Amino acid sequence: MIITRTKKExxxxxxxxxxxxxxxxxxxxxxxxxxxxLSLIRCSNNxxxxxxxxxxxxxxxxNNPEDLEKYPRNEERDLDILLSAFCDIVFIxxxxxxxxxxxxxxxxxxxxxxxxxxxxxxxxxxxxxQVVSKLFEIVKPDKAYFGRKDFQQVAxxxxxxxxxxxxLNIDIVTxxxxxxxxxxAMSSRNELLDSVxxxxxxxxxxxxxxxxxxxxxxxxxELIDKITREINKDKNLKVEYVDIVDDETLRTVDKIKxxxxxxxxxxxxxxxxxxxxxxx
Length: 280
Ligand code: PAF
Fold this sequence. Notes:
Elements: E1 2-4, H1 7-19, E2 24-29, H2 35-47, E3 50-55, H3 65-70, H4 75-84, E4 89-91, H5 95-98, H6 117-120, H7 124-139, E5 143-147, H8 151-163, E6 171-175, H9 195-213, H10 220-232, E7 237-246, E8 261-269, E9 272-279
Helix pairs in contact: 7-8, 9-10
Bound molecules: pantoate.
């Protein structure tokens, strides 16, 4: 596995790959890797000749400095994991490699960034778009892989790719959410939970699972209330929002259409903010 920290060196390797007419899959990450990332890498390995993984904790997408500071980082462990996952190239840039100048771009996502996460994390998706567009321009992959756990992020990245980066011709591939045995969606932030909180956190997915099965018997309003109340019953959990949205527009729907509608939640578990979603 090649470890590179500069664009210049990365481009040297990518040129060799391109000259040999081989394909490149790309998995952007912020490190603290887990099984969810590994499933993206596996997918990329299956569909491409080479897989590039980036590790970069992007300060522009953190609306809260404490959250940025607490974000788990463990490069040595990440490199071991990447090696065992047959990653070909890992790109670990520092901030000057990604942002040699101040990035003041403001993206218009046609409202996709105004709902759910966007309401509570101002500027978050603009920051995601800033870094993803930089990374896409650097790596120029054939395909890029993202997890469905970050449901709104995937919609924003697809929009970005289509409306701002179409010249790069990148296919965005969405992979299923990977869950722990008790249903908790895998996330780097799970590392920040203590053992009691970790146990409580599994109630989030259990509740979503229960109500995505019985949605036909109750109204949408009732569904949101029941999910909120059931999760809040655990004293370690505090719901920030529950929304039931159209898969394409991310707008709140009045009527649930199976296969086209998803329930999304953000929940505080102590100080750790967790998100999850489930399709109907
Ligand atoms: O999902 C993430 O880990 C990040 O938002 C991403 C896509 C790597 C951009 O920093």
